[in-house]
Each structure stands twice: as C-alpha cells, then as structure tokens.
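agent: user wants the full assembly modeled, not chains individually. Plan: 1) parse entity lines 2) check alphabet per entity 3) run joint structure prediction 4) return tokens. Steps 1-2 passed, two entities, 522 residues total. Proceeding.
--- entities ---
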Amino acid sequence: MSALEVALQGMAGTLSIDVSFRAAATPLLLVGPNGAGKTQTLMMILGAARPRRGRVTLDGAPLFDDERGLDLPVEQRRIGFVPQRYALFPHLDVLSNVGYGIAAPSRAERRRMARALLRELDAESLAERRPAELSGGETQRVALARALASRPRALLLDEPLAALDVSLRRDMRRFLAERLRAWALPTVVVTHDRADAEALDGEVVVLEAGAVVQRGRLAELAAQPATAFVKQLVSGPDR
Amino acid sequence: MSAAPPTGRRAPWRRTVLAIVWPGAVGLLSALLLLLVALPLAGLLFSASPRQLLAGLGDPLVVPALRLTIFTTTVSLLVILICGTPLGWVIARRTSGGSGAGRAGKVWRVLETVVELPVVLPPAVAGVALLLAFGRRGLLGPGLAAAGIGLPFTCAAVVVAQTFVAAPFYLQAAVAAFRRLDPDLILVARTLGASRPRVLFTVAIPVSWPSLAGGAAMSWARALGEFGATLMFAGNMSGRTQTLPLAIYTALESDLRTAQSLSILLVAVAFALLVAIRAGARR
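--- prediction returned ---
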C-alpha cells in the first residue's frame, strides 16, 4: 500500500512545529491560517528544511529518521512538488520544463515522454511556448505535468489554486480532483479554502501555530469545530 | 485677532525670478559637467587627421601591446568566470533565506566584503598589496622562490593584477543575480532529481545569464584599463608586461600621436567587446 507517513517536530524561525499525518489513496488536506507552518511542513517533508525530531516514510521506506541519523537529500526523495507560484523554469519552453525531470536514454525519447505527460493534462498544444506566455491555468497544468515527470511516489501541492482567478478556480478544482483520483499517489495539498477540501474529498488536518488542532473529514469538522478558525473554515463561502 | 501670514506663498516677483533663474542654473551646471566629459572625448577623436592616427598605429609598441592585452584580459576574465561563478553561488546561498541568519551566514557576509574590497581600493594600493603578497619579500615570496617561481614582472603578474582588481565587479553581479533567483526554482529542480551541480548549470546560471554577462563585461572593462597595479607589480616591458594602457603611457613620453592612436584603439576594442557581450546576453 502506497503511503506517505509524517511525524515531525522542528522549528521554523520562532515557530515550533509538531505535526503528524498519513497520506494514502485520497489527498490529505493541510489547512490552517497564514503563518501556521504549512509550507514549512512541506519543506521538511521535501528535505529542504531539517526537522529536529521525527520520521518521514514513503511506502514504508524512511526518508528522514533522526534516531537512525537518516536524512535523504531532496533529489533522492522522489516527491513531486508544485509550489504556490508554480516556479516554471523561465528560460525553458514548456516541453523542456516537463522534460527536465525525465530520465530517458535519449533526447528524442525524453521529448516524447514529456509530450505524453502534457497530453494527459490537456496541455499538449502548449509544448513550444515559454512560461511567460502562459495563463494561470495553463501554468498550473504544466507545473503538474513537470512534477509527475520524474515518476514521483508522492505529491505535494502548495495552495495549487490560490494563484488562479476565481472564475478559473472552480474548473481547475474539478480537474485537479479528478486527476488526483486517477493517479492515486499519496498527495498532500495545502489550502485555505473549504471548497478545495470539499472537492478533493480527503482527510483534513488543521494546523494552527505549528500544532495540529483537529483532523477528520470536512463533515466531522463541521459537526464539532475545535477552534474559531475551523468554525470559520467550515462555514466559509465558496471561492 | 491677527491672522498669521500664509506660509508657502511667495511674493510674485520672487516667483518670476525663480522661474528664470532655476532653469538657467540647472542648464548651466548640467552643461558644465557634460562639457567636461565630452570635450576630452572629442579631443581624442577629432584633434588629429586619420592619416596621422594611422601613422601612429605603425609604432613598434602597438602590436605587442595589443596582443598582450587581448591575451591577458582573456585569461583573467576566464579565471574570474571559472572561480567567481561558484564563489558567487556559495555566497548567495549561504547569506540568504534561512541559512543567512546563523553565524555561518555572517562569516560568508564578511568574506563577501573582503573579496569585493578591491572595488574601492586605489590601484596604487593594489600594486603595493600584490608585491607584499607575491613579491620576493612578500608573504608567499620565499615559498614561491623555493619552487623556482618568480611572479612579479612577468606576464602572469599582469593576469594576477587584472584578476585582483577586476574580479569584484563580476562577483558583485553574480552574488546579486543568484540572490534574486526564486528559491522555488532551485527546490523544484532538486525534487525532479537534479544534483546540486546540475541545478547550478541548468537553472541558476541560465536564468541569471543577463546579469552575469553584464558583470563579466564590467570586469573585462576594468581589466582592460588596468594601469597602476600592473605598473607596480608587473612592470612596463614591451612584449612581456606592457599592456595597452602602459603602452599609451610610454608613448606619451615620445609621441603624443601614437598615444592618441593607441587610446582610440583601446576605446574601439572595449566598445566592440561591450556590444558583443550585450548582444550575447540579450539572445
């Protein structure tokens, strides 16, 4: 069974973070106010920030384990990452962006595989374009295709819809939910938004000031909100 | 109840005077500085006939100095690029974001200041400093002598002097460019399996390329004009250590026209290379 298991304690500036969850077939939604430590949690999972204590395991294999002194470098963890502003490589066209992480025996083969990934995300027509020429929604599709290109065993998405126009957000939300179901990778999605949590339909973990204050399905959170933030979240408007 | 006179209002005559005097003053002061810069350039270009200038280029000083200048500045620029790019990368990475806060970040910041110091160092001071480091009685002098190496007053000394004074210009540009890089670009590249060197060569350098090229051009221009430190540390021997600026100085003692021809040649070489680098950076 494919799963990403996280149990970490660490510092982000002056904020101490203590978080644990398990992401498997359905997306795990990491929710919380600004400054709660959501992005920093992703950084620790990716290996870009060093936790003080804890474990991260992927499909049973440890990526980080302080007791064993194990700390795999970022490039060996095989976790796909889509940052909030997508961070496409501005000097490469779309096809080369997607091809960057593909290990293929030849350039032609790499380009063929990149094209196939773009097709899967309905973005094949963008192959020759530059990132600066893409709309928000197009950029997001390319960033997703690029993250999948290195055949990751888990996926981290940092506020994947926040940079999009409200009108676009609804379509992309549906699109994302459908694709994540199809890929069935352990996925962590950071979000602010009740509608995201509803559409992606996974377990919600609420982080406040670095600590998990509540976890469960959205309906369970709605029935008994533990904090003011959760209350606001579950009654929040669709955006 | 006496109202205070409204402040900020001027008498009409004062406004009129200001309206005449102010544009005049601005124009006069600007023109003075413009003339000071433009007149010497005009003198350089127009005070002799093309035939006189061509004759000046026939001087036996010219060809060796030109050859040596192109050779030494190319070598020093290569040294600056090859060593300065990784150094700029390390300094930028160690002094920004989360890693810049600790003690290690401070050490790298101090190091950055030290390496960039030659920008404000007078060339004469640079010459003395180089002699005190690599000269026969300098810090490394005995060691170099034991190895059979005498650095001062050789062609290599020219390269060392140029690198010393010119490297900071490239380094400053490289550090600034690498600091401006979106950290997410680097992180994403690594999540895609890229090693640290691959991230530097396939993401950081290409994305920062325009700024790096600009810094390289500044460095190269500084090396090309290098005079004081070279004169003190490498000497002024035709064919061995006499670069174009030194040849100009030598020619000035005998023949002003030769010095003028050489000066125009130097300006032309610098201008051509700057245009080439700019064009390369824009591509």
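agent: reporting back. The CA atoms of residues 106 and 145 of chain B lie 36 Å apart. The mean pLDDT of chain B is 85.
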